[in-house]
From TrEMBL:
PANTHER family: HEPATOCELLULAR CARCINOMA-ASSOCIATED ANTIGEN, PROTEIN-LYSINE METHYLTRANSFERASE C42C1.13. This is Methyltransferase. It comes from the Bacteria. InterPro entries: Methyltransf_16, SAM-dependent_MTases_sf. Keywords: Methyltransferase, Transferase.
Amino acid sequence: MHDNDRFLELAQAPDARLDDLLALARTRYDVSFDTAHLGGLDVELLQIADLNAHIDTLMERAAATRQKLTLPFWAKLWPSSLPLAMLALRLKPAPGDSFLETGAGLGLCGLAAAIRGFETVITDIEPEALLFIRASILKNGLEGKARAARLDIAGGSLGRRFTVIAASEALYIPELHAPLITLFQEHLEDAPGAQIVLSCDRCREAMPFFAKAQQDYRIQRTETTCRTDAGESQTCVLYRMLRRTDA
C-alpha cells in the first residue's frame, strides 16, 4: 500500500486510535500538539513541530536531487484561519445543523464548529492533512461530532448539503475559482440562513472570484486584524455569502 493510501485509510477508519495516528504521522514528520487560543477556548492542533526547519530540509533535498519542490501548504496555520474559527464559535446552530470546512489544512475552523455544536465534516485533498485533522478530532474529544473526509475542490462531491460551508485561504489559485463556486452550489443547503464564510489575507482577496459569486450570493465583507507567526499585525478579510432569493 502506498504511504498516502495508508494515511488516508487511517484518517477515515472508524476505529482509529490516537496513538496509531500519531505513530503513522511520525514515520514522516516530527509532530507535536500546539494550542490555538480562540478567546477563552483552547483547541489542540497536531502540527509539524518545526515547520520552517522541515521546509528548509525539503528545499535542500530538492536542490540536491533536482526534483520538483512541493511545499506542505496544508501544514501551516494561516493567520486568517483564526478569525474564521472565532466566527464559527459565534454561530448558533439549531439541532441538526451541519458544517463543512473545505481546503481545511489543519482544520481549526471545523474543530471550532464541532465544539460549537455543529455536525461537522472537515475536508482536504491531502491525505496527510486528513490524518492530522483526525488526530486533532480525537485529541479534542470530538469523535462523533466531527469527521475527516477527502474532498477535491477541483471536482469532488460529498453527495450532501450543509448549513454552513467555510474555507480559509482557498482563493489563491485562480483556476479553482469556478470549481469552488460549483462546490458551494452543490453543497450549500437551499434554506434560509444557510451561508458560506470565507477568510483570507487582504492581499489575497481575489476580487474576480467575488465578482462572479455575487451573481448568486449576497456578500458581506468585514476587515479584521490577525497576527502572523512572528506576532506582527496584518489585515484579514471575512466574507459571509448568502444565496440571493432573486437569483
